[in-house]
């Protein structure tokens, strides 16, 4: 009986973590909103200890800010953090692409290419579902490149970056995000990999990251604080 208690407690904490994080990443909890533990417990239907553990974990990940005697704030998108993320990505992603170039699954790349081409070849206004799907495709492509080298530290770091960038996209209007040029850049990266052109692929990736950083900073600076 005693052996089962830690497992149950851990499961509830994980459940609370996933639910709160999902609410943040989908903008159900707005940046800057301040809540207390009791409100989180009521929303989730989960007890105090698992919720508190989830809040601590999310605060360590930069999604929540705990203010003693004031409440728990949903973190705002910060220009400094966007800058830091893209600086690291600009340094490591092209290097990792070069290292894992031959290990990236070509069948998967072909499928990714078709996904991006679908949006390039169709002239329509993006729905909310489209923007969510494109954000997921963006994350999948970049994570696939990072995961190709089998370095857990790099994968964990990139996963954290992608979570924050997903939050950034959710906090922006779909018209602000550069989906169209980004789709073309993703296709260019994929096609250069499929063609075996490692230098061109790395150059395309570097240019894509540079352009994404410029646009992201512009959007963040224009956000209402």
Main features:
mainly alpha; elongated; Four Helix Bundle (Hemerythrin (Met), subunit A); three-stranded antiparallel β-sheet; Arc Repressor Mutant, subunit A; 9 helices
Short description:
It contains nine helices and three strands.
User: Structural class of the helix and strand makeup?
Assistant: mainly alpha
Overall pLDDT confidence = 88
Distance between the termini: 50 Å
Low-confidence stretches: 1-9
CATH architecture of the largest domain: Up-down Bundle
What general outline do the C-alpha atoms trace?
elongated
The CATH topology of the largest domain is given as Four Helix Bundle (Hemerythrin (Met), subunit A)
Q: Assign the CATH superfamily of the largest domain.
A: GntR ligand-binding domain-like
Q: What is the count of structural domains?
A: 2
Please provide the count of β strands.
Answer: 3
> Can you count the helices?
9
CATH class of the largest domain: Mainly Alpha
| Strands ordered across the widest β-sheet | 1-3-2
Residue fraction in strands: under 5%
Query: What does the main sheet amount to?
Result: 3 strands, antiparallel
Order of helices and strands: HEHHEEHHHHHH
**Fraction in helix:** over 70%
Rg (CA only): 19 Å
């Amino acid at each position: 009986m005693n052996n089962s208690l830690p497992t149950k407690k851990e499961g509830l904490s994980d459940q609370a973590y996933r639910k709160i994080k999902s609410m943040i990443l989908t903008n159900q909890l707005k940046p800057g909103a301040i809540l207390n533990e009791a409100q989180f417990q009521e929303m989730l239907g989960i007890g105090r200890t698992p919720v508190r553990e989830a809040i601590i974990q999310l605060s360590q990940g930069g999604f929540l800010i705990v203010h003693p005697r004031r409440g728990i704030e949903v973190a705002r998108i910060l220009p400094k953090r966007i800058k830091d993320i893209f600086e690291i990505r600009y340094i490591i992603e092209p290097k990792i692409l070069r290292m894992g170039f031959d290990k990236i699954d070509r069948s998967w790349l072909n499928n990714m290419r078709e996904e991006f081409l679908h949006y390039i070849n169709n002239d329509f206004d993006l729905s909310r579902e489209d923007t969510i799907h494109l954000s997921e495709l963006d994350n999948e492509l970049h994570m696939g490149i990072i995961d190709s080298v089998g370095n857990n530290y790099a994968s964990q770091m990139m996963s954290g970056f992608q979570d924050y960038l997903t939050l950034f996209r959710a906090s922006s209007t779909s018209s602000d995000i550069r989906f169209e040029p980004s789709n073309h850049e993703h296709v260019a990266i994929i096609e250069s990999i499929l063609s075996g052109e490692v230098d061109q692929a790395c150059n395309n990736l570097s240019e894509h990251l540079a352009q994404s950083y410029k646009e992201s900073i512009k959007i963040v600076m224009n956000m209402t604080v």
